[in-house]
Each structure stands twice: as structure tokens, then as C-alpha cells.
Amino acid sequence: MPYVNIKITREGATAEQKAKLIQGVTELLRDTLGKNPATTVVVIDEVDTDNWGIGGESVTVRRKAGK
């Protein structure tokens, strides 16, 4: 049973976009590794940009600085 965890920043990904991610990852595992879609679990975690850091700074701070 594959378990895939996708983490994205919480910035307005639509329900339709997330559904496409879930479907696409499920199909990729089926097509590439022969995994059963019925037992494939895909979880999307949306993280606030204040809680996501790169290079010692939050994404919020980096974006305000134009990085």
C-alpha cells in the first residue's frame, strides 16, 4: 500500500488542483510501479508560509524580500 505525502504552502491551491495531484500521483504509481490504485493513499498537507523555512528564513519573509 503506497503512501504519498505532498506538502505545499497554503496559498490557494483549489480543490480541483488537489484532486488532479491525487489522481496523477495515483496513476504514476500504477503505471510506473504497478501499484494498485485502490490501495494507494495520497495526503496533501498545506503549510502556512510562516511555518515553512528556507535558508534560515520563513517563506513569508523571503517573499516579502523578493527572494
Question: What does this entry look like structurally?
Answer:
With 67 residues, the protein is an alpha+beta fold. Helix content is 37%, strand content 27%. The chain is built from 2 helices and 4 strands, in the order βαβββα. The chain has helices at residues 15-33, 59-64; strands spanning 3-9, 41-47, 53-54, 57-58. It has a two-stranded parallel ribbon with strand order 1-2. It has a two-stranded antiparallel sheet with strand order 3-4. A hairpin with a 2-residue loop joins β3 (53-54) and β4 (57-58). It is elongated.
What is the number of beta strands?
4
Q: Strand percentage, roughly?
A: 25-35%
Distance between the termini: 39 Å
Rounded to an integer in angstroms, the radius of gyration calculated over CA atoms is 15 Å
Can you give the mean pLDDT?
97
Number of helices: 2
**Shape from CA axes?**
elongated
Summary?
Helices cover 37% and strands 27% of the residues. The chain is of the alpha+beta class and 67 residues long.
